[in-house]
Amino acid sequence: MDGNRIAALVSMGYAKSAAATGTAYQLYRPTGPSNPAAGTPLTSLPVTVSADSYRFRQPVSLGKPMRQVLVDTAQTRAGDYLVGAGGTLFIADQSPLLPVQAVLCNSVLTVKRAAAPDAGVVDADTSDNIVPSPPPHGCLRHSVSGRSPPQG
Question: Region annotation Disordered: residue ranges (predicted)?
Fold first, then answer.
């Protein structure tokens, strides 16, 4: 038996275990960096979340975002998002023959890049409607969960 066959059997075992013990999660595959879990989910599949290597002897600890998940690895890949009753999970690593590592996502961070300051460059093409502007106060602005930082 080769490594690919063993990995396929492990994946099938993960899928069967998740079907028996998991809850429904929606699978999202991001197409860009903004709002990765938006749009129509690819599919719904059962997922079992564990914090202690599938032993299920202790509850998930607060403040520790790493989780191991049982999921059909034939349908998922690293970089996917799983959204369900237990929250939003980002699949960080899905190496063959190893437990699937996921990160619990509990906040949304929006990062906006300020425009570069005008360095005295003359815009030769005036038809493009691009007008250089100074950066806003503070070069980096962010909002968490839709709240904007204080202005000042």
Answer: 125-152
pLDDT of residue 3: 84
Q: What are the structure tokens assigned to 56, written together? A: 């299920």
Q: Which of 14, 106, 11, 17 is nearest to 66 (CA)?
A: 106
- Three-state DSSP class for 58? coil
- pLDDT for 107 beyond 80: no
Residue 37, CA distances (Å) to 33, 82, 83 in order: 10, 8, 8
Note the pTM of the prediction, 2 decimals.
0.66
Helix intervals (H) in the chain:
3-21
78 close to 100: Cβ distance less than 8 angstroms: no
Q: Which are the contacts of 49, defined by CB distance < 8 A and separation ≥ 6? A: 60, 67, 68, 69, 86, 89, 102
Q: Which residues contact 50 (CB under 8 A, 6 or more apart)?
A: 56, 67, 68, 69, 70
Q: What's the token pair of residue 132?
A: 């250089």
